[in-house]
Design a protein that fits this description.
It catalyses: 2-oxo-3-sulfanylpropanoate + [thioredoxin]-dithiol = [thioredoxin]-disulfide + hydrogen sulfide + pyruvate + H(+). The chain has 279 residues and is an alpha/beta fold. 28% of the residues lie in helices and 13% in strands. Strand 4, helix 4 and strand 5 form a beta-alpha-beta unit.
Length: 279
Amino acid sequence: MNPLVTPEWLSTRLQDPNTIILDATLPPVGVTPPIDTRARYLANHIPGALFFDIEDLSDHSTPLPHMLPTAEAFSRSMSTLGVADTATIVIYEQESVFSAPRAWWMLRTMGAENVHILDGGLRAWTEAGLPTESGPAHRAPASFHAKLNHEAVKNLAQLKVKLSTNQKQILDARSAARFNGTAPEPRPNLSSGHMPGATSIPFTELVEDGRLKPTDKLRELFAAKKIDLHQPITTTCGSGVTAAVIALGLELAGAKEVSLYDGSWAEYAQQPDAIIEKD
């Protein structure tokens, strides 16, 4: 199943009660003052779209950012929002590619099977001349029974096991400068650099003209980085958000076994025994 759908495909399903549209836009990192993406959603969104607040829907029992909540908590949140696990779910963001793949990954990892991303996001929708609306949207409470796919997510202990093997295939979505240790981390008191044996694939390298590159270009990119799509791959980044961009790109490219290290650099780099390489 191709996770990407076109504006035209979605436009024919706007009146379908089983189609749920989610705006999953997080504020871009490092922009001052911060962009209020919820306010932007309220001002202009695809008709009927709900706001999927990744920050609010993450686990707040941990100081780590954007961690998956428990299946029980996610079930309650989705049910209250009006998202059924049996629905056709279409996710978009307001600009380019950044956070919508994280929402896609969260929903898929929690058991929703029919989850898509609008290729090109809100910009492609409006450029196609399709309608938008303002104000909040609401749906009646629904039934979402989350079932965590443990194979899709790695914790710190599992990552350390992976780091001890020769077939690591850990793909880091942070910028090359942060990976190399030549630029600071945006979070205080964290060293930049990278895990031993990790491969730098800045998530922006997967993006072209505000959308993911075509499948053939994604395959070329992974091949150039010497990534074996038939072997296990784990993606990581700063806080688990843009790691999902790589996970989505890998799925489009035909990768067979992909997991995401949810704690990512925010967790790894603060470990007293963490080996941090700079080059």
